[in-house]
Structure formats: structure tokens, C-alpha cells
Specification:
globular, binds zinc ion, single chain, 13-stranded mixed beta sheet, 501 residues, Neutral Protease, domain 2, 23 strands, alpha/beta, 10 helices, binds arginine
Length: 501
């Protein structure tokens, strides 16, 4: 018998209880010392998305073997079919009795841990024991709680590696984020656009869906012959076509946050080129762009190598094994800096390409430790656009800064403390433009030499990792030798237009 996955508030309350418990230290126990096997936390500890990510282990690698059937032609519903086998290599960071993965909108068919099958059971009451190797899946859309709990047997000792294989699948629809914006595996008539920020990776694979657990990825994506599946990194091998299906292989060996994974499917033309330094560029451009969008896209993608060279000279070498773009004729309403290969809606415009490329350093190589730190992503990527504009003969960074400072002090633009914009404010215009203005003001305050040296130190110290606004402030204080407390308070922590700093 299948266990119903839609749960009511009661179960949500149990999970919320688990979250509160796991936040505190493990209660001291009497008796002989030895392993104390406890449940991994159902969240990574992010205040904005408490159930995103999980505790108790560290994922090293995801191997995703996916088969996708796009929707039938209109008027058939805009629903696809996805089936997957996710092989997850992790290491326990505590003695683990149970642990969670995040998985939303799809159903689990089978789970093994180190080859040993777990059986599906109904979610137990809080504190209740469950016999043997087992799993249960809670999907509570009302409270935005999606948790797959796995109880491995034998239990996993701290430091021990485990391979978890989840066989899963179901209908794909068009998931939305907390603001109601399309994200995750977004089903399109001709395929899917896959863009996960902030916690939409769980709509297409079981994952610890938080950037504090970066991992490497391998993809094997089977789609109807004629469709192209594009993920992060480089092709692992040539595609294989058999019986009307084509399998595409991609390898992403650089540590990557789950919000930056993609496996988009469409009628793409694949183009291979490289930068002067030999970095592979792979562009997947939809066959069906309008002529105007196709022309704009060609012109901007042709600038990628130059932009990469410019950011490399300004900051540090490009952080990953490849670059490129996925340009779809459909739209999710925005572009996303998916690692190595950003996704663009309808067209890739020059400013947006500069923005998504700047994110490869700022956001992707160094990621925000908590979603509250999003200004470190969007402020920097916007500042990257400003720098590229100046470099390519457009407005100077100073002119872009001046334009932001022309916004009147009573405009609601200034009402956001960008270092804590709230879960509904992640993509507020101020996070982008006030964020970029903050960086420009910081540059003027500490001088070009310290500003660029500190930027390089930031990118080096936190490469392949995550860091906070406080960490950022500390690096700039250290390199410049200035006390920047007032500066950062005024610019990122106070919801008022800065006047003196
Ligand atoms: N990070 C993306 C960018 O650089 C924006 C993502 C917007 N996402 C959203 N759910 N509104 O432009
Ligand atoms: Zn951005």
C-alpha cells in the first residue's frame, strides 16, 4: 500500500518540533561513552527557508540518471514525466540514526543505503521508534515542508561514507517559489527550463537543498530523440541514441550549490568554442528564438570570452572547468547564473550576460552562507554589469552609482536593509542596485588598490565555499586597514538612504 504523502498541520508541527530540537545541542546522556546515534536536522539552519538543506551529513557527489518526456502538443496539459535514479555519496557528520533529503512533488519508488533496501512506512509520531531500514516522505505544500526521511540500518557512524540510491519520479508541472515565481523543473511545451534559486532543486532530485552543502555532479539525461539536454560542466561523453531516445552525459567536477544545478531540455543548437586561454564555452541556443532575439543573443554570446578575460584581469581566474549559456525561447521571467552555464529567457542581452558571468565568481565560487546574504550575489553581479559597461565604452561605474543616488530619499527603494531582505525580498531591486552602489561606495572609500586586493582575497579565501556579510566586512577591514563598521551599518543594515559614511 502506498502511503499518503499529503500531510496536515499536525505532522508539520512534528517536523517543526524536530527542527527546534535539532537546533540545540544534543542532550547529555548518562551511561558509557560511545556513539550516540541521533536524527540529522531537517534543515540547514537558514532562517529564511528552515527546511531547505539538512543536517548530519555532507554530500560529496550526486549522480543523476534522469529520463524525461516533455508534454504532448497543445491542447494536452503542460505536464511532463520525469523518472530518476539519484546516487548520492555522502559522509556522516554525526552518528546518524536517521537523515533527511528534500524532495518535492515527485514520488519515491525505492531507496537503498549501501545497497541495503529501506521500506516505505507512514511518517511516525514524534519520538516514535521505527523498526528496521525505512523511509517516509512528507509533502506539505501549505507549510512548504518537503522532507524525505531515511532510516538506514545499520546506522551510519560519524565520518563514515554512505551511498544512498533513490529511485523516484512522477509528473512534472510548474513549481513556484515563496513569491509565486516559476522555478525548479519548469515544464515547457518543448522541454523544461531548470532554474532552482533559492530552493527549487528539490523539485527534480532528492537533495540537501542548501548552498552550505556543495557537491560535484554527474548527469545522464535521456530525452526523446531530437531533444537536447544541457546540464552544468562538460560533456562526459558523446550522446547515445537508441530506440528513439538520446542520452546526454554531463560532468560538473567543481563543487556546486544545489540552486545552481540545471538539466534543461529543449530544441537547442549546441555550439562549442573556447576563450583565448583555452576555457571551453558551450552555448545551447534554442532553434525557435524570434529573429530579433536570435540576433541580440548572438551578439552578446559572442562577447563572453572578452567578458571572462576582463573579469579575470579584474579579479581572479575563472573558477570552473567551462562556461557558456542556455538560451530558451520560453521564459521563466528571468535569467539564472546556473554554474558554468547560465539560463536565459527568450534572449541573452549583453548586460545580463555580464551579470550572469560575474556571478560565476560572486555567488557561485563564493556563495552566500545564508539567503539573508543575497546582496553579496546580486550586488556584485550588478556591479559586474557596471564595470563591463564602463570597460566596453558605456556608462561609467561612477555614472551608474550616481543614477542610484538620484533616487529620492523618500522613495521606498531605500526602505530595505539589504543584508536582511527577508525571504520575500531576495530579488528586490534594492538588493541589486543598492548592493552595487554599496560596492562602489566601498571602492571610493578604501581606494582602488585595497578594493580590488580585498575582492581577490574574498574570492580566494572562500573559493568553493560560502561566507557571510560579516566575513565580507572582515576581509575589507583587514586588507584596507580601516574600521568599516559605520560604512556597512549605513549601507547594508539600515533601511534609510545613506548620506554620510
Ligand atoms: N539570480 C538571478 C539573477 O541574477 C535572479 C533569480 C530570480 N529568481 C526569482 N525567483 N525571482 O538575475
Ligand atoms: Zn543576479
Amino acid at each position: 500500500m502506498r502511503v499518503r504523502r499529503q500531510v496536515s498541520g499536525a505532522l508539520a508541527a512534528v517536523l517543526a518540533g524536530a527542527l527546534a530540537l535539532s537546533a540545540g545541542p544534543t542532550a547529555a546522556q548518562s551511561g558509557p561513552p560511545g556513539p550516540r546515534y541521533t536524527a540529522g536536522a531537517p534543515g540547514a539552519g537558514d532562517a529564511y527557508f528552515p527546511f531547505a538543506g539538512n543536517g548530519g551529513y555532507d554530500v560529496r557527489h550526486y549522480d543523476l540518471d534522469l529520463t524525461y518526456t516533455p508534454p504532448a502538443p497543445a491542447p494536452a496539459p503542460l505536464v511532463g514525466q520525469l523518472s530518476g535514479v539519484a546516487t548520492i555519496d555522502l559522509v556522516a557528520t554525526q552518528d546518524l540514526d536517521r537523515f533527511n533529503l528534500d524532495l518535492r512533488g515527485l514520488d519515491v519508488q525505492a531507496i537503498t543505503v549501501n545497497g541495503k533496501p529501506a521500506g516505505e512506512v507512514a511518517p511516525p509520531a514524534a519520538g516514535a521508534e521505527v523498526e528496521g531500514a525505512a523511509y517516509w516522505h512528507v509533502q506539505d505544500a501549505a507549510d512548504r515542508i518537503w522532507e524525505l526521511t531515511i532510516q538506514p540500518r545499520p546506522k551510519i557512524k560519524q565520518g563514515q561514507a554512505a551511498r544512498v540510491v533513490v529511485t523516484y519520479g512522477g509528473a512534472t508541472t510548474r513549481p513556484t517559489d515563496i513569491e509565486g515565481v516559476l522555478y525548479g523543473w519548469v515544464t515547457m511545451r518543448d522541454g523544461a527550463m531548470v532554474v532552482n534559486e533559492p530552493e527549487g532543486a528539490m523539485t527534480w532530485y532528492p537533495v540537501s537543498d542548501h548552498q552550505t552543502d556543495k557537491a560535484t555532479y554527474g548527469f545522464e539525461i535521456t530525452v526523446p530523440e531530437g531533444k537536447v539536454a544541457v546540464a552544468n560542466g562538460l560533456p562526459g561523453r558523446d550522446p547515445v541514441t537508441e530506440g528513439g531516445w538520446t542520452t546526454w552525459f554531463w560532468e560538473a567536477p567543481d563543487p556546486q550549490a544545489s540552486y545552481l544545478t540545471t538539466a534543461s531540455v529543449g530544441d537547442y543548437d549546441l555550439r562549442f568554442s573556447e576563450t583565448a586561454g583555452g576555457l571551453p564555452i558551450i552555448d545551447a541556443v534554442d532553434d525557435n528564438l524570434t529573429p530579433a532575439n536570435a540576433a541580440a543573443t548572438e551578439a552578446s554570446l559572442a562577447l563572453q570570452a572578452e567578458m571572462i578575460a576582463f573579469f579575470e584581469e579584474t579579479f581572479v581566474p575563472y573558477p570552473f572547468n567551462s562556461a557558456g549559456a542556455i538560451v530558451d525561447d520560453d521564459t521563466v521571467g528571468y535569467a539564472l547564473e546556473t554554474q558554468t552555464r547560465p539560463v536565459y529567457s527568450r534572449a541573452a542581452r549583453e548586460g545580463t550576460v555580464a551579470h550572469e558571468l560575474a556571478h560565476q565568481w560572486f555567488g557561485n565560487a563564493v556563495s552566500p552562507e545564508r539567503w539573508a546574504d543575497i546582496w553579496l550575489n546580486e550586488g556584485w553581479a550588478t556591479y559586474g554589469e557596471w564595470l563591463w559597461s564602463e570597460e566596453s565604452g558605456g556608462d561609467s561605474a561612477q555614472a551608474s552609482f550616481d543614477a542610484v543616488m538620484e533616487i529620492p530619499a523618500d522613495d521606498s527603494f531605500w526602505d530595505l536593509a539589504i543584508a536582511d531582505p527577508g525571504p520575500f525580498g531576495l530579488f528586490h531591486g534594492a538588493v541589486y542596485d543598492r548592493g552595487a552602489a554599496t560596492l562602489h561606495a566601498l571602492r571610493v572609500k578604501v581606494g582602488d588598490e585595497a578594493f580590488f586586493a580585498a575582492s581577490q582575497e574574498w574570492l580566494t579565501r572562500y573559493d568553493d565555499s560560502t561566507a557571510t556579510t560579516d566575513d565580507f566586512e572582515a576581509v575589507f577591514e583587514e586588507v584596507s586597514g580601516q574600521d568599516l563598521t559605520t560604512f556597512f551599518d549605513v549601507w547594508v543594515r539600515t533601511p534609510i538612504k545613506p548620506t554620510t559614511w
